[in-house]
Design a protein that fits this description.
Lambda_DNA-bd_dom_sf, 13 helices, 3 domains, 434 Repressor (Amino-terminal Domain), Rossmann fold, transcription, six-stranded parallel sheet
């Protein structure tokens, strides 16, 4: 498809005098200034028909790329933020690194910079937006609902990652945590485990990710007629917490035949406690977890884990964010990405011989 690059008589009459701006191009082409900037940057997010129409106006008006860059700087920061409420720790926050990696890769392909802001709260976020330092943001799952509400009220382009936003009308991308936990629990049940203990990283009434994982676990128990077998121990997401919870669990009578760690940090601590107790995985006790970063293949034995596609979550979230930034009337989008169970060496049939 091609477009007539000759301006109509009316367009010729309306042709701006003096220096041409992106607003002039947008007005003549019938698009937003964000769309003009995407065309200038060569973004693949613009439909071909729209690209040709905008390019035709650019050619007719003599709009130069250096002028586009100047106009873009005045109207847009060319920067997206990643808002996190705490310092990112290299070992414990593998998934946040995957989100950041996906965001950086996708944003740079669109000519955008990335600003990482930790310890974010409503006041500091308001400064970022009001000062024009960011055009939009990827928002961490631990950001509280008060800040999400502020973002929605101010119509700031943003995408929440890792969980849904409840009734707050913003975009979000998450994994199917419920189904993942259901799959892992069902796998252990099929191996004959009836004495399973969940090791959780926090309060399910506060953290929606924990809530969905616990609900998936309960649903699998219900389907197997094992409602009375529910057993949960509460700690936090750290290696040390997993270690301490497992040490306590191993003193119980009867001892659990399987430990279901709600994240891999907990699972690594669990493996240490089991090893120190002189027990073997999975001969004496099985261990399963949720997340499935590369870490699970570098411990012994390799961990059976539910794969949570956080890089893909980050990629989808960035795609949505760019669309929101360029849209004149952005509509919140929601996506749930599938999870799957990766069976490895840490799970096996329920032990009977060495269980006290």
């Amino acid at each position: 498809m091609s477009f007539d690059t000759t301006l109509s008589q009316q367009d010729q009459a309306n042709k701006p005098k003096g220096r041409i701006s992106s607003r002039d191009v947008a007005r003549m082409a019938g698009v937003s200034t964000a769309t003009v900037s995407l065309v200038v940057r060569g973004s693949n997010l613009v439909k071909e028909s729209t690209r040709e129409r905008v390019q035709a106006v650019i050619n007719q008006l003599g709009y130069q790329s250096h002028a586009a860059a100047s106009a873009l700087r005045s109207a847009h920061a060319n920067t997206v933020g990643y808002l996190v409420p705490e310092i990112i720790e290299p070992v414990r926050d593998i998934f946040r690194h995957q989100i950041l990696s996906a965001l950086t890769t996708q944003a740079h392909s669109e000519g955008l910079h990335v600003l990482l802001d930790t310890l974010i709260n409503a006041q500091t976020h308001a400064y970022l937006v009001n000062s024009g330092r960011i055009d939009g943001a990827i928002v961490d799952w631990m950001i509280d609902d008060a800040l999400l509400t502020t973002l929605a009220e101010r119509r700031v382009p943003c995408v929440l990652v890792g969980r849904d936003s409840g009734t707050i009308p913003i975009s979000w991308v998450k994994a199917d945590e419920y189904h993942g936990a259901y799959q892992l629990t069902q796998h252990l049940i099929e191996l004959g485990h009836r004495q399973m203990l969940v090791l959780s990283g926090g309060d399910e009434n506060i953290n929606s990710i924990i809530h969905e994982r616990i609900q998936g676990y309960r649903a699998a128990l219900d389907r197997a007629g094992m409602q009375d077998c529910e057993a949960i121990m509460w700690g936090d997401w750290t290696f040390e917490s997993g270690y301490q919870m497992a040490k306590e669990a191993l003193t119980k009578t009867p001892r659990p035949t399987a430990l279901l760690a709600l994240n891999e940090g907990i699972a690594v601590g669990v493996l240490k406690a089991i090893r120190e107790a002189g027990l073997q995985v999975p001969l004496d006790i099985s261990v399963g977890t949720i997340e499935d970063s590369p870490l699970v293949e570098y411990v012994s034995p390799e961990l059976t884990s539910v794969h949570i596609p956080m890089y893909e979550v980050g990629k989808h979230a960035t795609e949505i964010l760019v669309h929101l930034i360029m849209s004149e009337q952005p509509i919140p989008q929601q996506r749930i990405l599938p999870t799957y169970l990766q069976v490895r060496a840490s799970t096996g049939p329920a032990s009977t011989g060495r269980n006290p």
